[in-house]
Amino acid sequence: MSGVHPAWLGGLGGGAGLGDDVVLTRDPLCGLEAEAYTIARSGGVTTVVAADEAGLMYGSFHALRLDGELAAQTHRPFVARRMVQHWDNVFVHPVMGQVERGYSGGSLFWEDGALTDDLDRVGDYARLLASVGINAVSLNNVNVHAGEARLLTDRLSEVAALAARFRQYHIRVYLSVSFAAPMVLGGLDTADPADERVKAWWAAATQRVYATIPDFGGYVVKADSEGQPGPFAYGRTHADGANVLAAALAPFGGEVYWRAFVYNHRQDWRDRSTDRARAAYDHFTPLDGEFAANVVLQVKHGPIDFQPREPVSPVLLSMPRTSLAVEFQATQEYTGQQRHVCYLPPMWSSVLSTVAGAVDAVVTVSNAGDDRYWTNHPLAQANLYAAGRLAWDPALDPIALLDEWIGLTFPPAAAGVVHELMRDSWAVYEGYTSPLGVGFMVHPGDHYGPDVDGYEYSRWGTYHFADRDGVGVDRTRATGTGFTGQYPQPLADEYESLDTCPDELLLFFHHVPYTHVLHSGKTVIQHIYDTHFQGAAAVAEMVGRWAALPPETVGEDLHARVADRLREQVRSANEWRDQINTYFHRKSGIPDAQGRRIY
Amino acid sequence: MSGVHPAWLGGLGGGAGLGDDVVLTRDPLCGLEAEAYTIARSGGVTTVVAADEAGLMYGSFHALRLDGELAAQTHRPFVARRMVQHWDNVFVHPVMGQVERGYSGGSLFWEDGALTDDLDRVGDYARLLASVGINAVSLNNVNVHAGEARLLTDRLSEVAALAARFRQYHIRVYLSVSFAAPMVLGGLDTADPADERVKAWWAAATQRVYATIPDFGGYVVKADSEGQPGPFAYGRTHADGANVLAAALAPFGGEVYWRAFVYNHRQDWRDRSTDRARAAYDHFTPLDGEFAANVVLQVKHGPIDFQPREPVSPVLLSMPRTSLAVEFQATQEYTGQQRHVCYLPPMWSSVLSTVAGAVDAVVTVSNAGDDRYWTNHPLAQANLYAAGRLAWDPALDPIALLDEWIGLTFPPAAAGVVHELMRDSWAVYEGYTSPLGVGFMVHPGDHYGPDVDGYEYSRWGTYHFADRDGVGVDRTRATGTGFTGQYPQPLADEYESLDTCPDELLLFFHHVPYTHVLHSGKTVIQHIYDTHFQGAAAVAEMVGRWAALPPETVGEDLHARVADRLREQVRSANEWRDQINTYFHRKSGIPDAQGRRIY
């Protein structure tokens, strides 16, 4: 609970909020699938029927959200796999800290190399996740360092201790493992997936895990990615690699989440023919149908890396014979790092509307830590809340989910202000940061704040190619990298043509002159100026709106925390506005049509 | 010795190279000043006469350099204070490491929080420094962290152990101290220099130092600089601050080296009226005459920060009633970090030709560490060598010094190649890096490799203001920041006028169009292209030249080390060439007149 309005966390078993007027009936013969439930409320009495304990639990949490009478409704999860992944390190990493890309204090699970001694907090977190429909959690960073690798073997008891807490809420735990584990932990001289000793090592290691944790979920693997080991070293495919782990897990019902985030991170910026956006598709689609049934290929929602605006990854539309997970990032690495208000579910909802039919799992990288508000910025909780709810039902309206979260978290007197602050906050953030889908104008390394050329001459494959005449990346089939050709129709043609490419993705797909006229009727350069002035102005308004809310309405501490973060958001938004505008003014030489101040 | 040809380090006391045919005569009544000596060689017998032991030592080192007969010559140091400063940390700093801006392995003095257990290596280093005329060394980083502050008090015995080794070679040791030491170490609630308790604390602490180390040299202080504490916090001047420490040291003959590196490091890039180049002059010249006699104001040779090309600092020409030290940087922070060959003494010599008459001390930041070649790049030793020799005699020709070092270090068969590699290496480095004196187009933080806009929108006050029309910083009196007005005549007018401003400093003083024609007859943009193609090509030639030298000529290990560093220099020079050329081509739109490849 820890200081935040606990309504949406609360209740189950403890009785708070869930009183005698709730009748829970477990009926294995009721005809409902696993985790599903039927709920009704009539005459003040709520009834929940489910075939299993998990269904009863989800129905109970639903009961907590109910307001008023309800005719019987059946709810079932859209996908069976609804996972939150943690990028937590056991040992504080010298660069990345305790939680990689974490902005909410330390890890909930580990502290300075040891298991947390606050397992009750882990229990609270498990309830929090369960209450929004999450049923799987991975405990450690996908970049698996040497110390963390040992969670799989001699530190397994710590994983078991965490699993015990999550199990209470029907959540299975997963471990990120190193593809090189047979060498790092097993003392073998190879991790070649075709080597019988390697297969035997994985089988034995996995058997030991299940002997300790019978409902263990499985493995998460980042292989051949940003320096992590993988099957390429042995001339094997990623299907070869994933299937060895899958074979070890299959007897126990476990699964491998195998990340598709594979690209050349040592690219030469001079080489304009290589396109990082193409990489996942080029690597993985030829393997469609070759992955074992218990491999889930985990694909970031966009082709690059969690930018504020990307098209959907074509991999998600192109592998019908492979189990797919779409990966979202609640931790706001590129979207304000929980110092900026940025309610992301409208973005995720838009992705899900395209890919929901193609995916078997929804994965969200957690934004929670040992911060007293869980997420540093109290309003960032809403991202985690809605991530779970959308995984359960992708058709939910993200703004309705926002109001649902607000209703469970804040008193009615604060609801309007919070709603106004958050509703358009993703669009506001996009307005004052990288324009028109071009992305990656962030400060290298920490990814916070503007640095327009920060990645322009780097090895990371994230360029904007701005010169004195224009800006953007030509990814067309006609004249560019051909990335548009990775999409099925009609998307391939829609993105290919300047006539049909949506404005907000223009610079992702095309290199255009600053004087190019958008569908909105504005030139690119004027759009850049306008959105940056407007975005920063909108943040300034947010500050005033929050300041007008009496602190006691939400609690003085929470009020002060949000006010403090808003101050930083204003400062940062102004810095973004001025750097972006100055950069493009210096390059284009074109003045702002409204004559506003550009430095 | 440690693996490098030891001729110029060798001999004194050990007999190597200094045989029975050398007659040393100490004659207090000979009329020579401290440290001076008369040397002659006739009929194979060398005679050295001096009034003190130090003079005999310097004369003996001179004897080791002698080749052939010599009529009697008297040599005396140009300045009495010839110091090498170390930026060594006792504890490994999480960002800066064991040695801040050190590129030669760990510290010679400290290792992971403890005094080195290799004091013999310290003795070798002391001999090395003495052999080139250095008589003072500061042991720790000017950024004094909490652990390092204690060298002044409870870790004084470690300083004494080092002092014992340096004393053998007539070198006095200094400590960098924190201005806040009375608070950090003394438990006072203030470090106000006007507070009697503060004065008393410094007096007592200093007395304890001298009780342990009677020939202790004094303190080095970085105050009110990049976050270090200083007198500004109490509304006091830097003279007030320095004089308190000076008063504590005066009874024992000690001195304060007080750094003039004071500027606003939280500048707003939007504010074009503030000019970091002005800062030292604006802060310190009003205090001329107010510093105690045993304060030496230590001024970086240029107004910014050790860039490959800067004008001389006007502070060095404007404080006749203050003892001044000019500060050079042998550690190659901005000049290739001992991975690039960059022989810097031609730059230092040019500075000294302007300021030698005005300075009382020459300070060089050391480039040595526990690397087996002392300086990582074996050829970087020459910078330390010549730094000492120029401090002794600023009129020495830097290329003659290069040959002197080569002759003492390498066999004749290698001399030509080494000379060719090094002679113009500063000009080559300047060619492929920042053009025309504009500076600071380096990667932020580590300062290695190109990042043209890396500091352009930062708080550090180091901008180039490149836009689609032109580049450079207007520091004129007529239209700019007025910095040129800080120079005495004729320099003030020379820099002010485009007609007389030297090409190599053009962008330091002026913002000009890319089409501006230099005195060389080239346009600015064509100069940028040409120097970058030529600079990178020159490095490629260096590689071939070195490869053609048979490894056994210089030893295979040293040959391989230099070859390895040259490979990196080629890679880096090409990266500089391409990033700079592409950046300015994208901005200016002007093609290379020779049609070479610009990406």
UniProtKB/TrEMBL annotation, chains A, B:
The organism's place on the tree of life at top rank: Bacteria
Domain Glycosyl hydrolase family 67 C-terminal: 375-596
Gene Ontology annotations for the cellular component aspect, listed alphabetically: extracellular region
Gene Ontology molecular function: alpha-glucuronidase activity; xylan alpha-1,2-glucuronosidase activity
InterPro entries the UniProt entry points to: A-glucoronidase_C_sf, GH, Glyco_hydro_67_C, Glyco_hydro_67_cat, Hex-like_dom2
Keywords: Hydrolase
GO BP, sorted A to Z: xylan catabolic process
UniProt-recorded name of the protein: Xylan alpha-(1->2)-glucuronosidase
Organism for this UniProt entry: Dactylosporangium matsuzakiense
High-level lineage: Bacteria, Bacillati, Actinomycetota, Actinomycetes, Micromonosporales
